[in-house]
Design brief:
The structure is a single chain. It contains 29 helices and 17 strands. The protein has 686 residues and is of the alpha/beta class. The chain folds into six domains: 54 residues, no CATH class; 77 residues, Glutaredoxin (3-Layer(aba) Sandwich); 112 residues, 3-Layer(aba) Sandwich (Glutaredoxin); 185 residues, NADH-ubiquinone oxidoreductase 51kDa subunit (Rossmann fold, 3-Layer(aba) Sandwich), CATH 3.40.50.11540; 86 residues, Ubiquitin-like (UB roll); 80 residues, NADH-ubiquinone oxidoreductase 51kDa subunit, iron-sulphur binding domain (de novo design (two linked rop proteins), Up-down Bundle), CATH 1.20.1440.230. The strands form four sheets. Strands 14-13-17-15-16 form a five-stranded mixed beta sheet. It has a four-stranded mixed beta sheet with strand order 2-1-3-4, with helices on one face. The protein has a four-stranded mixed beta sheet with strand order 6-5-7-8, covered by helices on one side. α3 packs across α4 and α18 crosses α19. The longest helix has 16 residues. The termini are far apart.
Amino acid sequence: MGLFGPPAVDLLARFPRERTWLLPALGAVQRAEGSVSPEALAAIAAHLRVPASEVWGVATHYPEIRLTAPGRRLVRVCTGVSCRIAGGVDLLLECERRLGVATGATTADGAVTLEAMDCAFACGVGPVVEVGHRRVGRVARTDLERLLGAPAGPGTFAAAAPAVHAPEPPRGVAGTPLARFAALREEAQRRRRALRLVVGQGSCGEAVGAGETLEALRSETAARGLDAAVVAAGCDGMCWAAPVVHRVEAGQSTGTWTVPAADVPRFVEHVVSGAPYPRPAGAAEFLAAQRRVLLERCGVIDPTDIGAAIDAGAYAALAQAIDIADPTRVLAEVRASGLEGRGGAYFQAAIKWAACRDAPGEPKFLVVNAEEGEPGIVKDRHLMEGDPHGVLEGMLLCAFAVGVSRAIVYVHGEADLAAARIATAIEQAQAWGLLGERILGTDFSLAVEVRRGLGGFVLGEETALLESIEGRRAMPRTRPPFPVASGLWGRPTVINNVETLAAVPRIVERGGAWFAALGGGHGTKLFGLSGHLRRPGVVELETGATLRTLLEVVGGGSSSGRPLRAAIVGGPSGSVVHPRSFDAPLVPRGPVNPGTGGVVALDAAASIRDAVRTLLAFNVRESCGKCTPCREGTARLAAMLEGPVDAERVRALAEVVEAASLCGLGQAAPYAVLSGLAEFPEEFAR
């Protein structure tokens, strides 16, 4: 059936005829057809009553929208910094040789399209190759024959959505919010299984066989008659050890192992009889230096079961807060905590919340920025994959404190697993009376929907995100007015990222003073470690920890045997840090700013110049184009790095881009260039 047959008509008919549904409609057509044809663009324009020229303008703006059909099979190789230094470029060249096609082109018979990826967002298991929408990590050249010749798979995250949702909640629950919640928690505890074998099936784990381990473990435990629940979880952060299995008893992990599918029978024998089975080397050191607050449930609970989340402590802070029925107390605890936004700007969350609460106008909105489109930055999708109910509880507490009645979670277009798990959490929370109308029997209500992006680094800028939701090109707005006064559709709007909101339930439950006592008043911070490290993964430390602790104690030091010569901190908007600064504390606005939390370690053989050019090239491609200093300046900087570098001219142009760009992303685009020149001038003099 062609695009304009009944299935396609039904596809568009489900979208209300409003401009805000433009990006979702484009995404739906692309998922159904593989690309968006001119005819489809015209049909979308007619249905949504948006001028065709503006639909074209939006479609050409988002990098994940395909306006021409790819080959029957799509092969993509990650060439972001983390995968690049692990051999990603060599894999791409080998794919060109084997397929007989250049990168960015399709074979003459239309069978295969080969592309490079800016990031596969599975940095802990690089290099990553995606074949037929299925990502595979730790790929060697010898793996390519098998991967390129394998039958097409069902998708990147075939196991993203749960096969069976959590059982229905108890019926007839009444009383105060605390009494109602106590009944929910009692029901959750009643359903607890004595023994659970939990497979870490996050993005990294899935790329290295966690799905196969899960199915093999279910089959083997059934065959052995073992009374254990085998469930999929998110990642516990130990990407270097994946696929990981936790043994969970009485709600606590009592052991962690690396279990490939082929070793499942031996592992189950260990569970049954205590036969030897090795623990992953370095696990104790990896965990000992961390202060896991936001990550405490990741990898241990089933993220698709609200009962497991409640049993582990989720929603207790929400029940307590709405039972007291004083939103200002929630706001006061967040203010006392000193919680700063974790999207990179580190603006005080309580100030933003209070300004929105006091702003005139209804309804008020909460927008959760889960786009996270920066290469090497994976912590937000890690939280959504592993503890979506923790994120949702943070949203609820924010909405309660501010007076928000509608919330939108904006998830990266390729973060399928994160989107599926947050959508399941929303569905279950509504069924259990913790979301929607009259939450826990009170007058507090919140409607939540999930929106999907289609690429665009600029979506990390909050006003560009609002433009996208409203159905326009993602370009920053001039401020003032600020979103807290005039945001989504001109209404007061709070915009926070996932990590920020995930901290809120812990703050409300344990007190703002408790959080403020961590990290010298800055709390904890999540980091994604990748590059030349023995133990890459997602970790949580108190703010103020040093790069040396991150790289050598938690990350295990260099994986190549060569000394580390640099670290890239903060992704494309970050900086290149010399080892002389490895002992400086990672604090906002300090000598070494943690930024959004991505850390890529580079050993002595790595090219700093190549890494800087890779980051800058991403900024060039991802410039929204609104302001000339960013659009033209970054491109000229990239050209200046191609040959012998005139450092003074580069610095002068970089300063113009930094000073004259409209948004923070444009202003930060030259940071890697400036820091690379300052710390490693010899690399650019050659």
